[in-house]
Amino acid sequence: MNLPSLPRPRYWVRAVWASLKLPTHRHALGWWLATRVGLFTFWTVVGFSTQGDVVYYYESIAKLFHGTPAAQVLVEYPTPLIWLLTIPYMLGFGTQAGYVVVFMAAIAAGDALMGYVLWRSARQYGTNPRPAAAFWIWFVVAMGSILYTRLDFLTAALSAAALIAVVRTHRFTSGAMIGVGAAIKLWPALLWPTTLVDKRAARQATLGFLTVGGGLALASLLYAGWDRLVSPLTWQSDRGLQIESVCALPVMIARAIVPSLWEVRHSKYNAFEIAGPGTVLLTHVATGLTVAGGVVVVVLFIGWLRRPNRTPIEGGTLMIVATLIMIITNKTFSPQYMIWLAGPVAALLTISARHPELLDNSGHLFSWFRGPEHLTEDKRLLGPLTLARHIAIWIVALTILTQVIYPTLYDLLINERWATPFAVLLLAVRNVGLVYFTVRLTSLAFRSIAFRPAQAARA
Questions:
Q1: Which of 135, 312, 412, 418 can bridge 423 by disulfide, Cβ–Cβ 3.0-4.6 Å?
Q2: Residue 299: CB atoms within 10 Å
């Protein structure tokens, strides 16, 4: 009896390779499911080490339900976040385990919804959905479990929704999304000018931003009072120098060489901060850099808004630039800050693919690592999709380094070990790379977006 022979290995290679091209939404869904199942299986085996924030949310909301005034709960976050975080508490029947499960399940559902919205929005907009889908699939892998145990996913999704909405001419909705993001984490308010792509958007998006953001601020004031309304700002200003921040890098390197002079401790701000010679000076330097970075962002926005021919692609790029500047100049740096960048990058990939002369027709899952062969006639100007893909490459690479630093090697940064210099070296590579990328992209924004000559804009 002749048994059918097994398919040749190269057939399976070709089958896998074909699926990587994401030719249909089924292939995209298949890879999303495969990567997510793989991630959760791995975390189940090795154990979750990043759910401390979720437990902190639970303990804070539990205090609220046991009589603690709202003005004393989660004072580092805007008040509307309290209302949001009570939902998993109730769905989890007031238990810590139930809270963690509901919280992570909600983020996982949001992860799936994000991928669906990116794919569908690209199809409706008439663009190739594969670059954005591929980026989102692999960014979450690069970010790791941090994405499922932090609230920052919401701000990333809202910023992506704002950029996609302004492209779809839903101007009011675009501004409203920024308003909701600001009510959750404050910093998205910085992105409001990027939605003002034309005169109508300047009116409608601003109205949406002020109506939603202002309405939530008023509700917060009535619910918990003025001190609670401004507490996130005072909380941030009082913090020390966090060990992962760019400005802390000099003393972190020095500590790796002479550890006895510096101390790393867990502060009341739920962060690991470094204290010792030079840290006070570097904290002041970080404050000055934050102000200087804010000035740079304002100048960029003014230069861009003065131009009559603004585009959502430029607005999305400025979203990323503003967020990067805010990250590198801050005296704090938590790994979830990288999530802030993912939303605008995914949305930028979605809308940039509208330009067919810049598309890479291979459609391969990793094709966004390769820029298309054709650029604009002016070789000095990057094509939109080329620029978006270059940004995506940098963000994924820096995010991988971030996950290696936290949680993988974080104990080496906190406690003195024989391998601590190696962990500090990786931290230096990540921070220097982030600064280099920010400077390059900011320079490009100044030359090609904010103050681009009229003849270059027409080209």
A1: 412
A2: 13
Contact 389, 343 (CB under 8 A): no
Ranges in the chain, pLDDT < 70: 1-23, 48-50, 353-383, 450-459
Rounded to whole angstroms, the Cα distance separating 404 from 231 reads 33
Nearest alpha carbon to residue 204 among 187, 192, 218: 192
Question: Token pair of 290, please?
Answer: 């934050």
Rounded to 5 degrees, φ, ψ at 275 are -130, 145
CB 383 within 8 A of CB 348: no
Q: What is the pLDDT of residues 183-201, one digit of tens each?
A: 999 899 999 999 998 888 8
By CB atoms closer than 10 A (0-12, 13-18, 19+), residue 142 is buried
pLDDT of residue 374: 37
List Cβ neighbours of 396 (8 Å cut-off, separation of 6 or more).
Answer: 135, 138, 139, 142
352/354 Cα distance (integer angstroms): 5
168 in Cβ contact with 124 (< 8 Å) = yes
Locate the domains of the chain by residue range: 50-229+241-458
Mean pLDDT of the chain: 84
- As to burial, measured by CB atoms within 10 angstroms (0-12 exposed, 13-18 middle, 19+ buried), residue 323 is buried
113 CB neighbour count, 10 Å cutoff: 11
Tell the residue number behind the tokens 């009011």, with chain if given: 172
CA angle 437, 438, 444 (to 5 degrees): 90
The DSSP 8-state label assigned to residue 335 in this structure reads T
Q: What are the tokens at 109?
A: 């559902």
Cβ neighbors of 398 (< 8 A, separation 6 or more) are 338, 430, 433, 434, 437
SS (H, E, C) 37-106: HHHHHHHHHHCCCCCHHHHHHHHHHHHHHCCCCHHHCCCCCCCHHHHHHHHHHHHCCCCHHHHHHHHHHH
